[in-house]
Amino acid sequence: MYNIIPRPTKCLALEFEYCDSTTFVPVDPSLDNCLRCVDYQEIKVQEYMDRSRPTSIPRAIVVVLERDLVDKAKSGDSVTVTGVVTCRWRPVVAGERPDIAVVIRANSISVLSDQASQIAITEELREEFHAFWAARAGTPMRGRDEI
């Protein structure tokens, strides 16, 4: 897993000449040290499925959301993400290949309207719409009733 800090096995404090402590406890969240703690979420964003290429597999990338961006989108939402592309890696293990992943660290995320993102208006559909209402220009209420 990424972003794991291994539990220390010995004291690494530099301000002491010698420290033999081997017992470590988590920091109390009410202390000032936890002001650096932030809400954190990782989402996987997948490219939009194009209906003209049904056999293609959509690509995906992990997006890291922090602070007020957490929980802005839910599964299945169409989103626009702005952010910085960066690399992250798992801890290095001797004799193994390094595991590096490309991620986006989000600056903003906006959820697109579900209806607007799913409707594809073709030119043929647009012409049919205009022809329908042009034929009923004098009686728009009858046109509404037909719909």
Brief synopsis:
Helix content is 17%, strand content 25%.
Set down the secondary structure blueprint.
Blueprint: E1 40-46, E2 60-66, E3 79-89, E4 100-111, H1 114-118, H2 123-135, H3 140-146
Parallel strand pairs: 2-4
Antiparallel strand pairs: 1-2, 3-4
Task: Write structural notes for this entry.
This protein has 147 residues and is α+β, with helices and mostly antiparallel strands. Helices cover 17% and strands 25% of the residues. It has a four-stranded mixed β-sheet with strand order 1-2-4-3, with no helix packed on it. The model has no long low-confidence stretch (mean pLDDT 79).
Relevant terms:
147 residues, alpha+beta, 4-stranded mixed β-sheet
Can you tell me the overall shape? Answer: elongated
Low-confidence stretches: none
Number-wise, the strands total 4
Strand arrangement, major sheet: 1-2-4-3
Protein structure class = alpha+beta
> How much helicity do the residues have?
10-25%
How far is it from the N-terminal to the C-terminal residue, by CA? 54 Å
Task: Give the DSSP E fraction (strand runs of 2 or more residues).
Answer: 25-35%
Integer average pLDDT: 79
